């Protein structure tokens, strides 16, 4: 790209000019009408979800490439579709853009969205581009689901096992490494190690600092920049459940952290849970870098791992974990209590009640 | 509402606190999961559309009440659904809010959205509320349509009549009256008359100023604040078309003005059109207030009247206009030309080619 092209701003080509450039990311048949028309399969219900991402709040136009912002925005929405047990049909994209935003950034945003969407055969089916003082990305995603397969938060049953579909904490750790790129660079070979970065004050107490290999650093950052919605879990889940009826099934995704997901499921279902501290699957990159306690803070409260957290009978939970392989685990069970207890079977730590106090309050100071 | 309540800001109660207050506007069964599940009728296609509205660009939080902003945002989206021939199923609402926005403004916004939605039995089925430096409203609307009844822009056929479902220009005139509340107040009884307000320089040449009665002023402002999506047209249209197959049918809504709608339809269909200047239905409030030329500028370029502009065979067009009654009219016909001509059958004005040059370019200076 020559410098003239890369310095082109949205205000230089206007809304119409930008739309023309972005049409290549959309299927041609959907362009030009007041709304898009999508076919659905007979007997399926419609699933809809929406997310708004704001520059400076959810991403930074300066530190986040357009591609990463696009990928992450799509992944978050498709993860919500997966969390309902649904198959995606399409997304719409509403963009608010200051006139000075680089056209190349917007094209990269669409590039990143498309890269993630293509993995799941999902088109961009509509959108709106408007002027705004703040770069804003509003995505709505649509999917379809067999009504008998909808996964809801309020369906956890006492005695169910709690399954997570993969490791937790990698995304939040990756974000910290992005925000603090200098960590460890003055301690040792600047290219090969990184000391543990702090999470926001209340969220991670730093104690011993340890070292992180450069390759591991890359893996964690990638986990943050390119999270994968776990749509791949669903066919495996249906195969196990369909062959083994009747069953209970509850769940959601872990976009706001593993602790949040378990607490939300229990609250909606009117049940409690015990989570085994040592069973929570952690990224192996944490091993020689973070203390056990630090690692657990990332896993429980970090968020944006976009795994599924499911409650289902023990036998089926075991089969699911076996088939999903690495990272998937049974982390605890649903109880008839009213709290979510973090338990340590090694008895090194006392029982701890998990709640949502550590979650984000978007408007708090 | 006491002053303590009305001065409450979003940052005082946080995202969760705001969500709790807004839940009363949503059906209880949709709250709490990662996405909403909606039933669709068998054999129907899904229609989706999205709009982003930004404070200071599309509305002003200071001059627009929350209720009006909410009504208008919903009306624009439901109009897109109507323009596709579809029936609405639900909307999602994504909100970006500065911490200092009054909670009461946000509640009024939802009140206004709900007032408009209730007229069309349409629920709010999901949403997202995030912090943002700029108040932003992103709405996606979903509908369902019999695939054989989809109304597309590219289906206008040579010889078709062009129907508009109501008067044009009222909304833009109402906006000007809101922006310039003092017009005419120093000329006469301040409560009873109003002189013609200017549209943005290039859009309306002012010549003779005339007077507007207070009651008429109210009607025009109401047309701007509370536009009605023409979903009511569809059952009438289907009855006429179904009893009289085969038929051609093209169309869209007039959200960006009547001229824009006709040009867009012709461009998409590869046809031309002749519009009869004297056949364009104008608000009767324009009669003793605006010159014929001013009135036509509002009607052609004002926008946001949210009427439907349809092309269909002459006999059916006539039947539709008869049944819709006041305001509906045949304004012209589709030709095998390549331009849209504004023609004057009284021969007072020469033919004029309509194009989109006068339309908005959102990012232009």
Describe the structure.
Two copies of one chain form a homodimer. Chain A has helices at residues 3-6, 10-22, 66-83, 103-119, 170-179, 214-225, 233-242, 258-269, 292-301, 314-324; strands at residues 36-38, 45-54, 87-97, 124-131, 136-145, 161-164, 250-253, 272-276, 308-312, 329-335, 340-343, 352-354. Chain A is of the alpha+beta class and 365 residues long. The first copy, chain A, has two domains: 3-148, 60s Ribosomal Protein L30, Chain: A; 153-168 and 228-354, Phosphoribosyl-aminoimidazole Synthetase, Chain A, domain 2 (Alpha-Beta Complex), CATH 3.90.650.10. In chain A, helix 4 links the parallel strand 3 and strand 4 (124-131). Chain A is globular, with a radius of gyration of 22 Å. The two termini of chain A are 42 Å apart. Chains A and B meet through helix 2, strand 1, strand 2, helix 3 and strand 3 of A and helix 2, strand 1, strand 2, helix 3 and strand 3 of B.
């Amino acid at each position: 790209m020559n410098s003239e092209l890369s310095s082109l701003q949205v205000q230089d080509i206007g809304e119409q000019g930008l739309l023309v450039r972005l049409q290549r990311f959309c299927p041609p048949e959907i362009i030009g009408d007041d709304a898009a028309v999508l076919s659905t399969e007979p007997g399926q219900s419609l699933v809809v979800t929406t997310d708004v991402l704001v520059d400076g709040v959810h991403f930074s136009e300066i530190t986040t490439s357009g591609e990463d912002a696009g990928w992450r925005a799509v992944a978050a929405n498709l993860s919500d579709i997966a969390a309902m047990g649904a198959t995606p049909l399409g997304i719409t994209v509403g963009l608010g853009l200051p006139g000075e935003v680089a056209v190349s950034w917007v094209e990269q945003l669409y590039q990143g969205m498309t890269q993630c969407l293509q993995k799941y055969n999902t088109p961009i089916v509509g959108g709106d581009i408007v002027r705004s003082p703040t770069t804003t990305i509003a995505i709505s995603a649509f999917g379809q689901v067999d009504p008998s397969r909808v996964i809801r938060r309020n369906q956890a049953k006492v005695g169910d096992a709690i399954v997570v579909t993969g490791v937790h904490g990698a995304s939040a750790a990756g974000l910290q490494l992005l925000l603090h790129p200098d960590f460890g660079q003055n301690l040792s070979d600047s290219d090969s190690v990184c000391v543990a970065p702090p999470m926001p004050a209340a969220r991670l107490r730093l104690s011993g600092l340890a070292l992180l290999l450069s390759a591991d650093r890359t893996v964690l950052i990638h986990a943050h920049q390119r999270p994968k919605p776990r749509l791949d879990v669903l066919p495996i889940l249906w195969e196990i459940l369909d062959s083994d009826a009747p069953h209970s099934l509850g769940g959601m995704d872990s976009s706001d952290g593993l602790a949040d997901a378990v607490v939300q499921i229990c609250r909606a279902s009117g049940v409690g849970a015990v989570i085994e501290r040592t069973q929570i699957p952690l990224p192996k990159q944490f091993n020689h870098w973070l203390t056990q306690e630090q690692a657990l803070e990332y896993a429980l409260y970090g968020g944006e791992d976009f795994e599924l957290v499911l409650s289902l009978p023990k036998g089926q939970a075991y089969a699911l974990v076996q088939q999903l392989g690495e990272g998937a685990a049974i982390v605890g069970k649903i109880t008839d209590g009213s709290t979510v207890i973090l338990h340590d079977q090694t008895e090194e730590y006392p029982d701890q009640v998990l709640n949502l106090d550590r979650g984000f309050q978007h408007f708090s100071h």
